[in-house]
Specification:
Strand content of chain D: 5-15%
Order of helices and strands of chain D: EHEHHEHHEHHEHEHHEHHEHH
Helix content of chain B: 25-40%
Number of domains of chain B: 5
Structural class of chain B: alpha/beta
Radius of gyration of chain D: 19 Å
Number of helices of chain D: 14
Number of domains of chain D: 2
CATH architecture of the largest domain in chain B: 3-Layer(bba) Sandwich
CATH architecture of the largest domain in chain D: 3-Layer(aba) Sandwich
Chains: A mainly alpha (205), B alpha/beta (772), C alpha/beta (438), D alpha/beta (306)
Number of strands of chain B: 35
CATH topology of the largest domain in chain D: Rossmann fold
CATH class of the largest domain in chain D: Alpha Beta
Helix content of chain D: 40-55%
Number of strands of chain D: 8
Strand order of the largest sheet of chain D: 2-1-3-4
CATH class of the largest domain in chain B: Alpha Beta
Structural class of chain D: alpha/beta
Number of helices of chain B: 19
Largest sheet of chain B: 7 strands, mixed
Strand content of chain B: 15-25%
Shape of chain B: elongated
Shape of chain D: globular
Oligomer: heterotetramer
Largest sheet of chain D: 4 strands, parallel
Radius of gyration of chain B: 31 Å
Largest interface: B-C, 88 and 90 residues
Strand order of the largest sheet of chain B: 17-23-18-19-20-21-22
Chain lengths: 205, 772, 438, 306
């Protein structure tokens, strides 16, 4: 039986830790953390992080759900995997951080976060074409900030775009797509459905 | 021995640069012409088979029974210069002459000449050491305490072929371990709590025919020495005497008095328990709390409860982290739904116990680095979370477990404090021991003095407070001048002072092991018990041969007392670091030979020089000093006498030579067993003889002393402080006699130490007594 | 044990009561003398040219800061005075067969090229013009190709580096010896021993620092390991005891000591090596004694100062110039001039730091030597890490002394060695009852 | 994996960037792989791997299902090994594949999803990075043998980046082909091609990955350090195996120069482009060297065919 997501919690109420254990990829490893700091110390943009992975794990144990799911640490991960390979306890730190990010999105903690906007644009491309069309994803991402901001950002990178077009490295015209888009979409819908089914406990909460 | 005639023979080596550095002809002159040594031979390579054959021939022929090898240091080529039935006296012409002095110079030659003269004098005054052990020697071990450590020690000794008398104060054996539901893992894969094997250990011990177990028994008196201990044991109202050869003390530990931890909630709620109390609550089923038998769903372990705390126990009890992990694992395995927290300051699971820590984390036990501030009666727990950097309150867990530390049973808390000789408190009982020391209760009938320690006791800092006594009586009640206790050292444990020699003891033939000597877990205690058993066995065998224990292992010489001129000053009895000297009814010193470690501290202490060994004596060294030629002041050649500890300073001098470091040729070096054996007679002899300066080179003294005989270098320092006065009265400068701490690693410092002193002396000027 | 007694009594073969001790470090030496002083014949094998093992190369011991050579000197005296100990250096166990009371051991010795006639006079060293890397100082300096392992070497006998054999320098060395002690023809020899019990005291070696790639050990001379630090501080070390930066010979005043370099790390050594925390505090003291203005940072996960060692920790942490940082550094970067910069997170302050140092010392963990050496040889049960841990009911003829059985400090190694000596004695007693010492 | 059977057929998974910003990686790989004696066949109707934000945008299981679909298709092509040149594709596809292999429950969920398109994955495949295959199956010596136009005098800074080696390079499933922090294969590739691998101490530093795409302001300093180190080492070009690294380090040079007042102009190429040239193949058609936006004399010479 899955642990429900505790709404707000007393310090060191393990409900949240259990929830992460069961619902976040690699979360079942966080009990192994001995708080050595090798992960946070290895992070290329650790200085941009409010808490860093080590303290994030500490706060998960401490049941600090909101602080964790609102932490900018989730959005500053460059996926360099240094923390993961250096962890003396073999904890998949990167996947825990990214897993938490995914949860933060699905639980509505991150609607305004840029990464989450980008992720949505990206997923739109994947579900429509089965592939990523860099041009469309970027455009959609930019315009997710609204028309004006979108144009501004677009112009900001105009030179880069032109370079790519010039070198034939930006695909123009109809996006590349998988032939069987229907089948792919069906697969993704089914997968999403299964995921939701497995996390009923979460929805109940 | 009296009719023994010493027949000396000198054997000069010309190798290793000796022949180039000095005139061996001249040396031969000194031996045969000047000092009339009947036999004197030389060889280019004395340690070769041919060289050795020279010596053997004379020994076999009987012309020589005391060879004098004038070659390398006594520390070198020992295998080549060891002979059956004769011990060579060595004149060090290599390390301390040829290798540390310029070749072919007059001063170098004079140094070599004197080294040879001293060796000849030493040989003339040397009798072969021989022990004459008398009477019955017991081969039985007494093991005091029948917990894991004592049972193991008894079993190990029995399995090595020795009879064992196992004495336990309680009415049953097994000690604390009887209570343990499970034990920490010490076998691979080191992950899970292990079944408690104490029952098997007890069964094996009881099945061992060589072991006699006495429960409900108390040792009330211990006399004698290794091979000849006489122990009085009280069994209820019956009292019996036993003869044993050696003693293993395995009295273990007791938990720190949680009554003093009320700030952690102890005594305020029955649901605040100590780790020891928890053991009895742990079973197969889920854990229930004491107050209402409800299941304990949330359990908090508080590590270092009263440990690492100057107000309680300053030290770390080593085992608590592992024990709490074991208990936490048992709780969570019995009830996977339980929330178990361990609040620690430093998590200490050394070695392979790290596996156990990981196992606990895998099981979901939550480790929090935090220092607990308080636990309230309703179990509200407040602590400083060192990693969150904030104060956190854990609302009302169901059970709080205090991991209290180990207090050593280096005294017996169940009996009255014994009269502790002031001498012992100073020397062999650390007044800072946080046992804690108690203030002696004036009225001895006051039953307070019988009550558990901790209640009427308080820590005494620096022992400065009035009449400190230990909480409880002496374990063996030793009938030694040095007092009834086995030495109680750092943190109140009866550990060895030495890192390299953990079984070194100040009470020969008595060895402590297990938690009474250092906080340790059951596996470590069992290992320790085996080691102590072997040392006890060695003491038994050594005593029967009349041979010394560590560090002069096998030495057959022992001090002899000329009682005819003894003034009963008691210095030898009091200053013996090992309590080897007793007093007879007339207060004359009597040596308990098998306790003696042959350091000569008594010899150094004796104001009338009536204590001497057959091969080491005040007279012998005086003769060596007398043999040295001291030139008059017009020669511009000062003479410095150096007494060097043979264990550390002398090797350092040798190594200086090995490195070819050069130093003044004006020094004459005499190796001594220990600075403690230096008799002030030698200093006055030397000064009268016209020596300009005297240096004692030996080990560090003080709290971190390096002396292999505990007090030797310290006593030397103390005795020297009194010499100052004497010097003044003789109108001599105090600086002429000094003590320099030189460690074995000081080869590099040797030149500056020696030359520096020579300069000082040259600055002061020559000894006015020269030539008188 | 009772089972082993039965096995012993059944043993009809010609029994040997000799005890073989493999490894001449502090544990092996102790096991050998303790057994010999109880009256048993002992053969002590050491693979290097001199006894003393790891501790002989340590500057000082914690917590007393005394010199290991002090205790070794006493032990060497015990060996010198005890005819029943036979010491064989430069020897390894090649194979071992049989059972308690009756082991056939094949031993291989490397050539020393110097025989028992050597007087340690040193003429050979003077004659040799070739310098070889000095193993005693971990290659931080060099010695003459004919050398005495170190000033306190026992046995006190020279060695000739195999590199020069066959070169003209070797001839020079031979001709310089006035005692016919140099034997250039000496070769590897293999011989058999028959012993009743074996004590493995094979000790440890430091974990290979180059395998901890984020710490850039081989990228900078100023990143050294804990054993090199001991030599750097030793009076007979490469710098005569001055703690200097290997890169430029300048005083190393800003020093970092990194704990758990390899230990407590499932990527490397999963266990805790026990001694590193205290050894590093000792290193901090070395530096402070030499430079009053030194600043030392000790990076750690947990400080493992058990029992009375806590007092040493308290003493060292009271020094305002020795700073304890609860942090496992992520990696070490090098500035353009090669200065090591340690990067990580201070877990108590949350500070992300990047701090430059004159000298960085990696507290490398202990790896059992038995893991790589003589692996083919039957040594009794070993755990996953290669430590020798006999299980209940195992063949009683084999025991482990010191770190070959797990990470221990010096005192514990000596205790373990004393216990191992007793176990060996019990084992051989059982093969010929009546030969008891009792 | 250890079998040196060079005739083994590899199913090639190009990944989305092969049709956009990293066309030149795709072109050069297709050119050199047969030269190295490996047989390669494109994965039929492949889809996106989920990239670095798939989890966030679509959730973990749908993202894993993407890989499920690719691998299910690959199985129908009767191969044992899938090969890809893209770091992100490798990370996601290899990672998902290993998780599926290790976790039957997960495999069932993936197959339950695939079933709606009549697909299923039997977890029979190895997913491998092109560099790992070149190191373990081909070997450096084989590269040397193929070189006909050694890149004499070209100074190359081997910039490995992150995901090509982390977290799999030093694992059993990843073929243990190099270390996480100090990999050597890229320098060996360059040396094998006759170029000079300069001493480059940031070879596994991070370029900011997708953060550089989303919020470059946070990561430009990381890219600057990489460029600086390469310039200090006197490199003519930076060589990398990773599409995102190539784009980030190349594209942002102008902006970095603006922001930090530097004047970097360092071509960033794929190791495979250099190999193609060294193998004497066409500088444009095979090596795609005309597609690099940051140009230099050395690079332009390289594009020319001898």
């Amino acid at each position: 039986m899955a642990t429900p997501l505790p709404d707000s919690s007393q310090k060191y109420d393990l409900g949240f830790a259990r929830w992460v254990y069961e619902n976040v990829k690699g979360g079942d490893q966080l009990s192994m953390c001995m708080q050595c700091g090798a992960c946070s110390g290895s992070c290329p943009i650790g200085t941009d992080m409010d808490h860093g992975p080590r303290k994030l794990i500490m706060m998960i144990r401490a049941g600090m759900k909101d602080t964790v799911l609102r932490s900018n640490t989730l959005w500053n991960c460059t996926s360099c995997y240094r923390c993961t390979v250096r962890c003396p306890r073999g904890i998949p730190v990167t996947s825990i951080v990214q897993g938490l990010a995914a949860k933060a999105v699905s639980l509505g903690y991150a609607d305004e976060v840029v990464t989450s906007r980008f992720a949505r644009s990206f997923w739109w491309s994947v579900t429509h074409f089965g592939r990523t069309d860099e041009r469309l994803v970027t455009a959609k991402f930019y315009f997710s900030f609204g028309l004006a901001e979108g144009i501004k950002r677009g112009l900001g990178n105009l030179k880069i775009a032109l370079d790519l077009i010039l070198k034939g490295r930006m695909h123009l015209g109809l996006p590349h797509k998988v032939s069987d888009t229907g089948g792919l979409q069906a697969i993704l819908e089914k997968a999403a459905e299964i995921e939701a089914r497995d996390q009923l406990g979460e929805d109940k909460s | 021995m009296s009719d023994y005639i010493t027949r000396t023979g000198v054997y000069l080596c010309q190798g290793c640069g000796i022949g180039d550095a000095v005139s061996v002809d001249a040396l031969e002159q000194i031996a045969s012409t000047e000092l009339k040594v009947p036999i004197c031979r030389r060889h280019d390579f004395l340690c070769s088979n041919e060289g050795r054959a020279l010596i053997d021939a004379d020994l076999v022929g009987g012309d020589v029974n005391q060879p004098i090898v004038a070659a390398c240091s006594p520390r070198a080529m020992t295998d080549r210069f060891t002979f059956d039935g004769a011990t060579a006296v060595r004149a060090n012409l290599r390390e301390q002459v040829a290798w540390s002095q310029p070749a072919g110079e007059e001063d170098t030659q004079m140094l070599a000449d004197d080294n040879l003269r001293m060796a000849i004098a030493q040989a003339t005054e040397t009798l072969p050491a021989s022990a004459e052990p008398e009477g019955e020697y017991s081969r039985t071990l007494l093991v005091l305490g029948a917990g894991t450590t004592g049972l193991t020690a008894a079993l190990e000794a029995a399995r090595t072929g020795y009879e064992v008398l196992l004495v336990e104060q309680q009415d049953h054996v097994g000690g604390w371990a009887n209570k343990w539901s499970k034990t920490m893992p010490h076998l691979p894969p080191y992950r899970d709590p292990q079944a408690n094997s104490t029952d098997e250990l007890i069964a094996a011990t009881e099945a061992e025919p060589a072991i006699t177990i006495l429960t409900g028994a108390l040792v009330t008196k211990t006399e004698g020495g290794p091979g000849k201990f006489t122990v009085t044991i009280e069994l209820g109202d019956e009292s019996r005497t036993e003869h044993v050869g050696a003693i293993v003390v395995a009295t273990g530990w007791r938990p720190y008095d949680a009554g003093k931890l009320s700030h952690l909630g102890y005594g305020q709620s029955t649901d605040v328990v100590t780790g020891v109390e928890l053991e009895e609550m742990l079973g197969e089923g889920p854990l229930q709390r004491k107050s209402d038998d409800k299941p304990a769903k949330t359990v908090v372990f508080v590590q270092c409860a009263g440990s690492l705390d100057p107000d309680h126990l300053p030290y770390c009890s080593s085992v608590c982290c592992g024990v709490s992990i074991k208990q936490a694992l048992q709780i969570i395995r019995a009830d996977p739904g339980a929330n178990v927290y361990i609040l620690f300051q430093e998590l200490r699971t050394p070695g392979t116990a790290e596996e156990f820590y990981r196992q606990a984390q895998e099981a979901g036990i939550v480790f929090i680095k935090g220092k607990v501030r308080s636990v309230s009666a309703d179990l509200g727990l407040v602590y400083d979370d060192m990693l969150l950097g904030e104060e956190v309150s854990l609302q009302n867990p169901d059970l709080v477990v205090l991991a209290t530390g180990m207090v050593p049973n280096s005294t017996n808390p169940h009996i009255d404090p014994a009269e502790t000789g002031a001498d012992q408190l100073v020397s062999d009982v650390n007044p800072n021991a946080p046992l804690p020391l108690a203030i002696r209760v004036i009225d001895n009938n006051d039953d307070k003095s019988k009550s558990e320690p901790g209640e009427n006791t308080e820590a005494v800092n620096g022992g400065a407070a009035a009449e400190p006594v230990l909480p409880g009586g002496a374990l063996l009640n030793l009938q030694y001048v040095q007092g009834p206790h086995i030495p109680i050292l750092t943190d109140g444990f009866s550990d060895s002072h030495y890192l390299c020699f953990p079984y070194e003891t100040r009470r020969t033939g008595i060895y402590t092991c297990g938690p009474v000597r250092r906080p340790m877990n059951m596996a470590e205690a069992a290992e320790d018990a085996a080691g102590a058993a072997l040392k006890a066995i060695q003491a038994i065998e050594g005593a029967a041969r009349g041979a010394a224990m560590h560090p002069r292992v096998g030495d057959l010489s022992f001090p002899k007392f000329g009682l005819d001129i003894c003034t009963k000053c008691r210095r030898c009895t009091i200053e013996c670091p090992f309590g080897a000297i007793e007093e007879d009814e007339r207060q004359f010193p009597i040596l308990i030979e098998s306790r003696c470690r042959r350091c000569g501290t008594c010899m150094g202490a004796c104001p009338v020089r009536t204590i001497s060994f057959d091969n080491y004596s005040p007279h012998m060294v005086s003769e060596m000093i007398a043999a040295i030629e001291v030139p008059d002041e017009f020669s511009e050649k000062p003479r410095i006498l150096i007494f060097a500890c043979e264990n550390d300073a002398y090797p350092a001098l040798d190594m200086a030579g090995l490195n070819r470091y050069q130093y003044s040729a004006f020094v004459r070096i005499i190796p001594v067993r220990c600075l403690g054996s230096i008799n002030l007679l030698w200093i006055s002899t030397a000064l009268e003889k016209g020596f300009d300066g005297i240096m004692l080179m030996g080990c560090k003294s003080g709290d971190d002393y390096q002396c292999h005989y505990i007090k030797g270098s310290g006593l030397a320092k103390e005795r020297l402080s009194k010499v100052g006065e004497t010097l003044k009265s003789l109108m001599l400068e105090e600086e002429r006699v000094t003590l320099e701490e030189v460690s074995i690693a000081d080869s590099g410092r040797i030149p500056e130490v020696i030359n520096g002193f020579v300069e000082t002396i040259e600055a002061i000027g020559f000894n006015p007594f020269k030539g008188f | 044990m009772s089972l082993s007694k039965r096995r012993g009594r059944l043993n009809q073969g010609p029994a040997s009561q000799t005890i073989l001790v493999v490894g001449g470090g502090i544990a092996g030496i102790t096991a050998a003398v303790e057994a010999a002083e109880t009256g048993y014949a002992v053969i002590l094998l050491e693979k290097s040219p001199a006894l003393g093992g790891r501790v002989a190369s340590l500057n000082r011991y914690f917590p007393k800061l005394c010199h290991p050579s002090c205790g070794l000197e006493i032990n060497y005296q015990r060996i010198r005075n005890n005819p029943s100990i036979k010491v064989i250096t430069m020897a390894r166990v090649e194979s071992l067969n049989g059972q308690v009371g009756d082991y056939q051991v094949s031993v291989k010795t490397r050539p020393r090229f110097v025989n028992e006639k050597c007087t340690a006079c040193g003429d050979c060293a003077k004659a040799s013009k070739v310098k070889v890397s000095n193993p005693f100082n971990h290659g931080m300096d060099s010695v003459s190709a004919a050398y005495l392992p170190h000033e306190h070497a026992y046995p006190q006998r020279y060695v000739i580096a195999p590199e020069v054999i066959g070169s003209p320098d070797a001839e020079k060395i031979r001709d310089a010896c006035g005692y016919g002690a140099v034997d250039l023809e000496e070769t590897e020899t293999v011989f058999d021993l028959k012993v009743g019990a074996v004590i493995w005291a094979t000790g440890w070696k430091p974990y290979d620092a180059t395998r901890i790639t984020p710490y850039s050990y081989d990228a900078s001379p100023d990143i050294i390991n804990n054993l090199e630090m001991e030599r750097l501080a030793a009076h007979d070390g490469p710098t005569g005891g001055k703690i200097l930066r290997p890169s430029n010979g300048k005083p190393a005043k800003r020093v970092a000591l990194i704990q758990c370099a390899g230990s407590r790390d499932t990527n490397h050594l999963p266990y805790c090596s026990r001694i590193c925390c205290l050894a590093s505090m000792k290193h901090a003291v070395y530096v402070r004694e030499q430079y009053p203005d030194a600043a030392i940072d000790i990076y750690y996960i947990d400080i493992r100062a058990h029992d009375k060692l806590e007092a040493f920790y308290q003493r060292v942490s009271a020094d305002p110039q020795i700073n304890f940082v609860k942090s496992k550094p992520g990696h070490i970067e090098l500035e353009d001039d090669g200065t090591p910069v340690i990067c990580g997170e201070d877990t108590l302050s949350r500070e992300i730091y990047a701090r430059p140092y004159d000298l960085v010392v990696l507290a490398l963990g202990m790896e059992p030597t038995a893991l790589s050496d003589t692996t083919s040889v039957q040594m009794g049960n070993r755990d996953d890490y290669g430590f020798i841990v006999p299980l209940p009911g195992d063949e009683p003829g084999m025991s482990a002394a010191g770190v070959s059985g797990g990470p221990l400090d010096v005192s514990m190694s000596v205790q373990s060695a004393t216990a191992a000596a007793l176990r060996a004695i019990q084992a051989i007693r059982t093969v010929s009852p009546g030969a008891s010492t009792g | 994996m250890n079998s040196k059977d060079a005739r083994k057929k590899y199913v090639y998974y190009p990944g989305c960037s092969s049709q956009g910003s990293s066309k030149h990686l795709d072109e050069s790989l297709r050119a050199i792989i047969p030269e190295l004696g490996l047989e390669m066949e494109e994965l039929d109707d492949w889809n996106c791997c989920g990239a670095s934000v798939g989890n966030i945008g679509g959730g973990p299981l749908p993202t894993t299902a993407l890989t499920g679909r690719n691998l299910a298709k690959a199985e129908t092509q009767h191969a044992t090994d899938v090969i890809t040149g893209c770091a992100a594709c490798y990370l996601n596809t290899h990672g998902a594949n290993e998780r599926i292999k290790a976790d039957v429950a997960l495999q069932n969920k993936v197959n339950e999803s695939l079933a709606v398109a009549d697909l299923s994955y039997e977890a029979s495949l190895q997913v491998r990075h092109a560099c790992e295959v070149i190191v373990n199956e081909v070997g450096i010596d084989k590269i040397k043998e193929r070189v006909t136009q050694p890149l004499d005098g070209l100074k190359v800074a081997g910039y490995v980046g992150c995901q090509t080696v982390r977290p799999f390079a030093n694992t059993e499933s990843g073929g243990n082909y190099d270390t996480f922090d100090d990999p050597e294969f890229l320098d060996q590739f360059a040396e094998a091609c006759g170029a000079e691998a300069v001493d480059f101490n940031v070879k596994t530093s991070c370029c900011g990955g997708s953060i550089s795409v989303i919020s470059p302001e946070k990561t430009l300093h990381l890219i600057k350090e990489i460029l600086q180190a390469a310039e200090d080492a006197g490199a003519d070009v930076i060589s990398t195996p990773c599409p995102l690294c190539q784009t980030n380090v190349e594209m942002y040079q102008a902006e970095i120069n603006k922001k930090f007042g530097t004047d970097f102009n360092l071509p960033v190429v794929f190791y495979s482009q250099l190999m193609a040239k060294a193998f004497g193949l066409d500088g444009r058609k095979d090596a795609g060297l005309h597609r690099n936006t940051v140009r230099s004399e050395k690079l332009d010479i390289l594009v020319q065919n001898a």
